[in-house]
Every structure is written in structure tokens, then in C-alpha cells.
Amino acid sequence: MSAADPFDFDLVVLGGGSGGLAGAFRAAEYGARVALLEPGELGGTCVNVGCVPKKAMWLAAELASRIAAAAQLGFDVPATPAFDWREFITDRQRYIGGIHESYRKRLDRAGIVLMPTLGSLRDAQTVATGDGQCLRARHILLATGSSPQRPDVPGAELGGVSDDFFHWSQAPARVALVGGGYISVELAGLLQALGSRVDVFVRGPRLLSHADEEVVAQLEENYCHLGVRLHFGHRLRAVEPAGDGRIRLLDEDDQASDAFDALLFAIGRRANSAGFGPDAAGVAIDARGNVEVDDFQNTSAAGVYAVGDVTGRETLTPVAIAAARRLMDRLFGGQAEARLDYANVPTVIFAHPPIGGVGLTEAQARDQYGDAVKVYRSRFRPMLQALVEAPLCSLFKLVCVGEDERVVGVHLYGEAADEILQGFAVALKLGATMADLRDTVAIHPTSAEEVVLMR
User: Which has the closest alpha carbon to 36: 104, 96, 125?
Assistant: First the structure.
């Protein structure tokens, strides 16, 4: 930096989650001078109270289910295996600690200045740190993430939010989940598998309102077989004590639920957009609290950008990472048109078993293409479920359009759907047709073969 250079850094990043870290690392690869401001643990929601610890708990629940199946297939193991929740958490947190250390080493190697402090905008080129220091930067990246919401009802403080789940040291005997989105679905499945009795209270008529309706119906059927109790059309009015440290829910008709040992709200998340001083830099915030960005991640303030949950757009860790990397390719890599294509982003919900989807649902396709839509589906029991004579079914579904039957939607619910989807997401992006899938030899016996064998 020359004496005449008015900027301390080429890039200052607010937020050390997945998007912020990805942006910082990519910018540093291009030789940019980068500072990263993060007052908490590196990795943000995903690493600390989201994807990573959630997947670890999901894996534990999967193991419990497999052990139970093994007992039915002649293995000398208990049908209901004991699970030491505390011991597992120790292993989970050791793994997460390794991720933290890996990030710190990478930041050091890249020459990125890590500041364990909050940052706030003074203008579109100035960031004030928590200790009053001002940093001048050519570019500022907002990657401050989001936080879980709590309903505005009496007694809401008696329940926790999804973040609180990761501080539990044991499985409560009875758990109530409020919400019908992916967080509620994921927690319901793993808690039920790990020994809790779970009730899910949903305001609407179904789970996962944005997922394919037919796939969700199969999920609901399977969850009922697993023992999860679903309550639709439930309008929460209040939460109240029920004695012995338990709580119960009251609906708008003052009907009381059973008593529960624990309650978690999973009613959505809100962007962390208020704390960094958007008004000072002229950064526009929409009615839902999201930072407004264009297709190139530009905010309304020149030189200020945003990625990830704070934008409210496809709030997925890989999306934040991909958007941040492409933004840095544009800012520092000479790729003027680099930006993330938000179309056909594959997603997975770690239900039991998982749900994966990419592209249009059947309803979306019919709205867009009308009678040109043709749907293929396969409902089946995976081999393990058939061997143990379990009633759980998988449902794989393809949504196609036009005479050439171009695949515009792939929706998989069943064992290994999370791993299967990635390759078919590539095929969809490349414009695969049903003829292409049928021309591919099946891998037998697998669940994945159902996708290329549909007629």
C-alpha cells in the first residue's frame, strides 16, 4: 500500500460465515488486501448451529435406524440401542473445532486480517469496528447471515429456537416443534429416531409448502409410520407452563395440547441486516429485512455487496459460497460478467429419509407450461425396508415438458436421495431429456436406477 493510497484494504468483509469466508479467500487468491470482521465463531450458522452439527445428529439418527434394522436381520444387537447423547456431542464439537482451526490456518496463510469484532458502515467505503477503529475499503461485502425467529405470542420465551437444539445434552422425552418448514422436518425426524416422541404443529395444511406436493404427501405418510404426530391447521395463541417444568400449547380456540418436556420454534429466519448500519451507506433493505441485491450481488450503494442469508435469496450455504466466489471473480479476477445463476439450484432436506429436489415442481411446471407437462414417478420400497418388512416407501418423480420431454424437475424422496441428486442436477442443467435418461444403463440393485427406468 502506497502512502498515497487512501484505502486500508481492497475488501472488508462483515461476517465470517460460509459466504464471507468464501469471498475473503477468493479475493485473497487474486492478491487483494482483505480484512474479515467476525465477533463469533468462524463458519457462521452452517458450521456452528446449522448444516454441520445438524448432519452429525442426522447421521446418529441414521445409525440408530440401521442398528434397529440389523437386529431384525439376525445381528446380535439391541433392537433399541442406547445412545449416549453427551458422548456424541463431544465428538461432534471436536469435529467442529477442527473446522474452526482449519479456517484460522487458511486465513493466516492467505494473509487475511481477522478481526474478532462487529463492524458497522459509516459510509459506502468506511467500516467502524467495535473498538472504534475505522477501516477504509474499496469494496465492502455484507455476509452477516440470519437468525431464527420466535413468534410474538404470550409465553414464547418458554420455548427455544433451532439454535438452542444444538446446546441440548440429552433427548427430551416429549418434544413439540412449531413450524412446517425444512428445519422442523429435519429435527422431527432425527429426534424421533433418537428416542424422543415428537409432535409437529403446522399453521398450514401440509409440510414444506414449497416442495412438490406429491413428494411431501409421501413424507407425511412415512413420518406417521415412524411415530411423528402431525397437527395441521394449528394456530398458536400462547404457550403456558404445564407443571413439572413442562409446557403446553394453546391454539386460537383455547384448545390445549398435551404437555411437552421441550418446545422448539422453527418458523423461519430473519436477515441480520439491522446491526451493521445500512442507512449510513445507503444500503436498501426490503420489507422483510433483507438486503436488496441485483443479479451481480450489488446493493443500492456503489461498492457495497451482499451474499447469503442476509439477502434472503436462496438461503443455502453452497449458494452463499458460490455467489461470493463469482463476485470476487468479477471484482478482482477480471471476469466482468461473473455472477451466480440462481436457476435450478439443487436442494436437500435431511428428513428421514432425505428429500432432494432441483428444478420445477409439478405444480410450477403446469403453471408455466400447461398441457405440455408430463410426469413420471416411481413409488417403491428400498431393499433394506423390504427386507425388514417396514412400510416406509420412497418416491422418485420426474417433471418433463415438450415433445422431447426435457426434464425440468427432479424430485427424490428416499434413501440416498441426498447423494443421488447431485449428478441428476448436472443432467438437468445440461438439458437432459427422458430419452437421455433411458439411454443410460441402470446400476442394479440401487434406488438410483429408478430414475433411468421410469416409463
Answer: 104
